[in-house]
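Researcher: Structure for this, please.
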Amino acid sequence: MIAEVRREPINLFLCDVVLPDLSGPALAERLRLLHPKARCLFMAGLPDHPEVADAVARGEAFLPKPFVASELVGKVREVLAAPR
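Model: Predicted structure, token format:
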């Protein structure tokens, strides 16, 4: 994983909730161990998937698919501006 060798801080991690080998939230946990200040923005095209509901219930930032570039940019700005 690139985050394991990156020395500079990672400000935002954008990830799909549903992945083939590892869930997005599980991947985010690994990332947060390496970069604790990184913020995560999850996206998914399956809003009824249990992992999506769990992420939203935990207060994770979420953007449903499909979306247009302006929605992504707006959500990224929102996530980066939110208090930790």
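Researcher: Any notable elements?
Model: The CA atoms of residues 43 and 63 lie 5 Å apart. The first strand starts at residue 12 and ends at 16.
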